[in-house]
Amino acid sequence: MVKNSFSSVISQEEKKENGGSVEFQVVSFTNKIRRLTSHLELHKKDYLSQRGLRKILGKRQRLLSYLSKKNKMRYKELINQLDIRESKTQ
Question: How far is residue 89's CA from residue 80's CA, in Å, rounded to a whole number?
Fold first, then answer.
């Protein structure tokens, strides 16, 4: 499996004190998504991993939707830092 060199946006101190925040969860899901994507490039017929990827994508999308409704500025900063696209449904 190819390791993805994605540096975390949130520092180690913030992880320890605020591990349940929406931003931390989105960063965590983004790391998992990138890792699974690189895995699926090598193993195209791994359907169980494809299903897991779709589930994680849905969870991240729901969290981003929640964050955009609650605090638009934090949402914009987070998607810019993670270099992910903005949702079309907003």
Answer: 18
